Amino acid sequence: MLYSRWRFSRPIALFLCCGGLTFASACKPKEAPSDKHAEAPAQTTRKESESDLNVITLTEDAIRRLGLETQEVKEREMYRSRPYGADLVLPTDAAVIVSAPLAGTLHSPSDQPRLEVGRQVDRKQSILSIYPLLSPERSVLTPAERIRFAEAKNALAQSRIDAEGAVQQATVQVDAAKIALERAQRLLADMVGTLRAVDEAKAQLDLAEQGLAAAKLRQKQVEGVILDEEAGTLSAIAIPTPISGILRTVQVQPGEMVAAGAPLFEVMNDELLWVKAPVYVGDLDEIDSQKEARVSMLDGRPAADDVLVKPIASPPTAVPTAAAVDLYYLLPNQDGRFQPGQKLALHVPLKGQTMQTAVPWQAVIHDIYGGQWVYEQTAPQKFVRRRVQVAWVDGDWAAVRQGPAPGAKVVTAGAAEIAGVEFGFAK
Q1: Which of 14, 294, 346, 398 is close enough to 361 for a disulfide, judged by CB 3.0 to 4.6 Å?
Q2: pTM value surpassing 0.85
Q3: Which GO terms describe its cellular component (predicted)?
Q4: Positive or negative, the Cα torsion across 328, 329, 333, 334?
């Protein structure tokens, strides 16, 4: 009985409690709206531009101690150029591989035990000598060959005797012709001879001298014929280098036996190098391939030791996978400063000349993010850091697309010191 009464009275109590709470909240007075939502998250008294934040004021003594120098921004004619990565390669005729002319044993003419790579050699200098080898079937002469060899020796000896006799005979004829000429000249001087006799004597002397010269030439040719009496022995043959340069590679050493046509050594001449730069085919119309280009280190900054190179006519080469063609320039290298395979920056001139706003390249400084800046002198003791956008560099000047106007003075010497003062790392 009590349980059933409690079961029916419980929902009624909950309903009455909720109704009382609703009535209390409805009768509560409303609070005033808060002013916090109207306040801005940040406030500033006035807005300042970037130039106002970067004004550096120096005393006259500080300017003197820093040694600051300024130069005006100018509107000048700037030759456009574009940098490309380039490789130094050897010309096609700068490396020669020397091979063995025949089979034989190698010897060193200078009695050096071995050939060293990197050694300087001169043109036509004998690097090696080779003693030819006869095949085994030719090491022993057959009887018929021995007979022919003996006949050849006899014929050669007879030819030498005949040549010697002809020289002696021609010498006697020359002496007789000289005596006859002297006699004819004396008779003519004594008024008992004739001029015709003198002319005939001169002709006989000329004929005798020509005969003597021919006899001596024949004797020299006969004496130059040498027959080796022992089978299988021949004199050494010198192997010179065809060009001057250095020994790039050595495949053999003195004392080795080599076959005919075997590579012996390679000579490289690096006094002239080719600068090879792959260029995108879309840039070819802008490039002036008839003008000189400038070679610098990979940093691209102009320096006093940069070299001007001339374009050359070379076999056309390309890189089809990169849609690029190769441009070649000639680089003198007599001092050996550059090496084949070295990577450099090639600044290729572009067509056309344009008037551009230019600042001294020495005045441009770079921040850690790659930004480019200059310090403009707005007053005798005030300097403002201005952002510039360098388009290209021509010598000591940089063409800028964004920066100070022409006529403004920028700091050329001491810009890094002013940056130290501004950012607090200067002493």
Answers
A1: 398
A2: no
A3: cell envelope
A4: positive
